[in-house]
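Much of what follows relies on a compact textual record of a protein's fold. A record is reproduced here so that you can trace the correspondence yourselves:
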Amino acid sequence: MRSQIEILIIGAGVIGSSIAYYLSRRGKKVLVVEKSEPASGTSGACDGFIITQTKSPGIGLQLARKSLHLLDSLCSELEDNLEYKKTGSLVIIETAEEWKFMESWVSQHCQEGENIFLLPPEELFRREPELNPHYVIGASYCPSDGQINPLNLNFALLREARKQGAEVCLYTEVLGFRFRGDKIVSAVTNRGEMELEIVVNAAGVWAAEIALKAGIKLPIIPRRGQVLVSEPIAPIIHHPMVSARYLTVKFIPPPQGEKEELGLGFVLEQTVRGNLLLGSTREFVSFSRETTPTGILAIATKAMKIVPKLAGVNIIRTFAGLRPFTPDGLPILGKMPGFSNFYIAAGHEGDGITLAPVTGKIMAELILEGTSSFPLTQLSPERFPNIFKKE
């Protein structure tokens, strides 16, 4: 392994791979270290939604819109087939309370220039005839959203970065750092000590552990999402969809009898191969990636209520992924306070696939130019003054 590194990126998920791609394109010598394999964390255990209409108005929505613009360019820059298509997305509405909330939500998005609108029942069922008219009362629709193969995106970014000169070392765990003043001068790993000029923490749900090795407390914790995968079947839906419950959970009490600890919301996507991905829970269970009978049953029951035809579809496997949660639902991007060469790009929770392109680009700009084309004040680690402290 090299002992002298220009830029060390910790994590070979979609975020670390995107940063490596944009840095290597600009001629920088990059080494990506990964304690397991590429996409072995959140990036390999998620759906393929590319969605803006679930993002909060303001900085979150602006970030997602910029990322979708970059994704169009990436599709021509990367040689791999990303299985990216703009299908449009639906947020399914089940109650009058949710409809009222979504009216305000859609209005706020439209004020920011987003093309999103509400679909009354007759129009929704024309687009998606398999939805249950006795359970669903409408939806919001965003035609610019779509879906992608997250593994293809992750591996394509990493592969292209390597073509541009980046190196990747797998099964390499960062155990600690050595310092000189406000600078990290080397990383101590299970494969030796590596001197470096710049280090980027893109370790996803493990980003807090990496930061702690530098004496910093990051407010990133894992949140589990359980997902069911069906056998390949003929097209049954035409848009990836998520329930409004995912958006309203903070504002409207759960329906009677629903287990709030599961954080259950309906998510449905059909891949190009015909498999259905059904989810999902949102649970704080530390680093457990186990699926549970309770979670699987809750997802299946919810899915069959919304799309009754799913009752005849076989489930071939289940999995659970961990999502890097932050208190305000926004990623943490920027330079670590107290350090001259330590950067963070983590905390994307379930938005890592959507936000990977813009994250890679703006982090490369920040590292190489000291500023970025996207304002980062609201995303900076310094927004957590009482939690994020060097000790």
The mean pLDDT is 93. The chain is about 30% helix and 25% strand. The longest helix spans residues 59-77. The CA atoms of residues 67 and 377 lie 18 Å apart.
